[in-house]
Amino acid sequence: MNPVFLSIGPITIYWYSVLILTAFILGYFFVSREMKKEGMSVSFLVDYFFYLVPIVIIGARAYYVIFEWQSYQNNIAEIFAVWNGGLAIHGGIIAGLIFTIFYTKKKQINTLKLFDIIAPCLILGQAIGRWGNFFNQEAHGPETTLSFLQNLHLPEFIIEGMHFSDLGKYAYWHPTFLYETLGCLIGFGLILFVRSRKKVHIGTSTAIYFIVYGITRFFIEALRQDSLMFLGLKIAQLVSIVMVLAGVILMIYSIKCEKFYHRKENENE
């Protein structure tokens, strides 16, 4: 599988970069449309995404490099070669969350309401971004057989794309990128379905994102062969547990807050 999307003279554009950029562009238009539906001003979005994109990428790269420092300590220049892969989505999420909280407070925008709008495009963007792993032939699962992949009724290009050498071993590998993509698409559909209802508690979409992606990533990470480790534990699984717990707490909090404000409104009538 060729990781290069386009090469013209000294200029090389990688699939990984194209897919990430595509995810951000789609995210911008999706968020803009949803904010207009909610009656929110979209004037700040250009500046917001202008800062958000590099911050998320830096956060994702820094997170990966920190836990893979032994691979970079003797080759510092490689740290900046993000087109070769090595972006940890959890690092991007953490950086994006911190920046968004700071930015919305500064602009006096309801942070949780913006999170709800971003949640579906974020999980859709992750589904798109995972295909970058496919083209880079990374983030795969354990060794499997050709017959297993064929029994999944996968397109031939995916099957062949999962047939490559890893650590000197030429074999077929589980397409964990595809498993995670499907999990993200299910989460995307679930969030949109919930948002289509007439009465939705603020924070619900964000809570669903945390819960669905947390569960999906926890089980996918069990298959991954290149997990970031800390004290013998898979970091992504630990973070996934925290995400699920945060999602459940946020769901409970949102429902209770909604009931509280509804009761206050009834008392004031």
In short:
With 269 residues, the chain is mostly helical. The protein is built from ten helices and seven strands. It starts with a strand and ends with a helix.
Distance between the termini: 65 Å
State the total count of DSSP E strands: 7
Radius of gyration: 20 Å
The coarse silhouette is globular
Computed structural class: mainly alpha
Helix segment count? 10
Strand proportion: 5-15%
Low-confidence stretches: none
Record the strand order, biggest sheet.
Answer: 3-5-4
Give the overall pLDDT as a whole number. 90
Biggest β-sheet description: 3 strands, antiparallel
Query: Topology as H/E string?
Result: EEHHHHHEHHEEHHEEH
- Helicity, as a percent range: 55-70%
How would you portray this structure in words?
- This protein is mostly helical and 269 residues long.
- It contains 10 helices and 7 strands.
- The chain has a 3-stranded antiparallel sheet.
- Helix 2 packs antiparallel against helix 4 (89-107), helix 5 runs antiparallel to helix 8 and helix 5 (111-136) packs parallel to helix 9 (204-223).
- The longest helix has 34 residues, at 235-268.
- The radius of gyration is 20 Å and the shape is globular.
- The mean pLDDT is 90.
